Amino acid sequence: MFQNRTEALALALPAAIFAALVFLVPVILLLSEGFRVADSWTFSAYADFFAQPLNRTVFLRTLKLGALVTLVAAIIGYAAAYAIVSLPAGTKGRMIGLVVLPLMISPVARTYAWIVILGRTGIVNHALMAVGLSDAPIRILFSETAVFIGLLQLFLPLMIISLVSALENLPKDVVPAARVLGANWLQVFWKIILPLTREGLVVGGTLVFTGSMTAYITPAILGGSKVLMLETLMYQQVTVANNFVAASVIAFILVVMSFAANILLKRIATARNRS
């Protein structure tokens, strides 16, 4: 398309400059605040952050919920994606449209809908009392369970879309061939489908894990002040405590965790493929 690399770089240069000015520079300045205390570079802000029991609890809760949402999304996503790619072309397109549809709705509206479903007078409590599993409404909102459900519903479509794309590139004859040779469905998935769709799992896992850790609206609404996560804690540090150093520390932790998740998923996928 281009006569030489210089022409391609010249066309990409304006976009690169724009991205650097409006994204990279502000992010670097923000992250640097956590290392700069009293005109000196130090890690004392990170030591002070993890020295507080509340911060350690919030960090571990964020990591736990992010990993749990990613794991459950992968399990559900593989089943849904395999079912979708097995459908005829017309039906497949409609099902993918239904998967994408929630992404077109505001996360605020989707999260507030869970208040109606999970509230004390919501559908879930009415159903539990109707079948005799509970004599009184149980508290589901403002708990880790509510945050988990909200995050899973919010980011599951991203996992399904990533896995659908990967499964569509899977050779059509490998699964029937494995079944003919006597492999059960668990062996087919573990030894054939999973290694051949690892790239889709890495992409989907990174999107879901990163999104679960950095989402603010869902933990703030469904968790409130009782279930703090790193993103809601960062908001409090900026708006309530006016502590930009602590906010910078939290932002850097979120960035590191996002990159670490991507690297870990790639390592697992590569190791599984080699084995």
UniProtKB/TrEMBL annotation:
Pfam families: BPD_transp_1 (PF00528). The chain crosses the membrane at residues 12-31, 65-84, 96-119, 140-164, 201-224, 244-265. One of its GO terms (biological process) is transmembrane transport. It is found in: Cell membrane. Keywords: Cell membrane, Membrane, Transmembrane, Transmembrane helix, Transport. It is a multi-pass membrane protein. Residues 59-265 form the ABC transmembrane type-1 domain. InterPro entries: MetI-like, MetI-like_sf. GO terms for cellular component: plasma membrane. It comes from the Bacteria. Signal peptide: none annotated. Belongs to the binding-protein-dependent transport system permease family. CysTW subfamily. This is Spermidine/putrescine ABC transporter permease.
